[in-house]
Amino acid sequence: MTKGLLNRHFKSHSDAEFETRGSHIWSSMNGNTLFPTMQDLLPPIKTAQEKFSTDLAASRGLGRQLVAEKNKSRLALEALLSSLALLIMAQTSDRAELLTTGFMLRKQPESRQIAAPANQKLTAGVNSGEIISSVSRPKGATSFLHQISNNIDSEEKTWISIATTSNKHVFTNLQPGKQYAARTGAVGSKGQLAFSTIGTIYAQ
After folding, report:
1. Is the pTM of this model over 0.85?
2. How far is CA 55 from the centre of its chain?
3. What is the homologous superfamily of the domain 121-202 according to CATH?
4. Among 95, 62, 74, 91, which Cα is nearest to 22's?
5. In this predicted model, what pLDDT tens digit does every residue of 95-105 receive, in sequence order?
6. Positive or negative CA dihedral for 43, 80, 38, 135?
7. Which of 72, 85, 142, 149 is packed most tightly, with the most Cβ within 10 A?
8. For residues 28 and 22, what is the distance between their CA atoms, to the nearest angstrom?
9. What backbone torsions phi and psi does residue 28 show, to the nearest 5 degrees?
């Protein structure tokens, strides 16, 4: 298997190029059978894409307020696409599969690999159905991928993933009395991803 990484940064794209890239990503992921668990994430991206396209067209008159609105909607779409890229890379590093997503691929970083997060702690939250997951922040980590699963006995766990910049996350709306597995991935500035060990805890 040839491995790859997605380019989840778009600052080098002009507005027109970013509009085309965002549309291509959405159409490539919509109905993509390699990523069935991510289909529910696409409607907000479609909405953000349409808003950016509308604001981009309106801003061509160069009114200051219209340009500011266009920039705001671009940032919102960039954030959604960046989070989607992280979730895709958490599922697969297969270059052939990544090429089906519509994202551009980056060269494998030559920098050192990021260390896996240590000192994982899983505790009950303040409210019923909450689990708090935290890890230490390894050097070079720019964001984190918090994952939880309720099928702890399966070798191929189905993970629910939350991408954040914090090394601590509160999972909510869990079933009290049910056991969950959780882990956290640290993401480096060049897309490196390393996971903590998997811990288990019963939701209260």
Report:
1. no
2. 25
3. Immunoglobulins (2.60.40.10)
4. 74
5. 889 999 999 99
6. negative
7. 85
8. 10
9. -75, -35
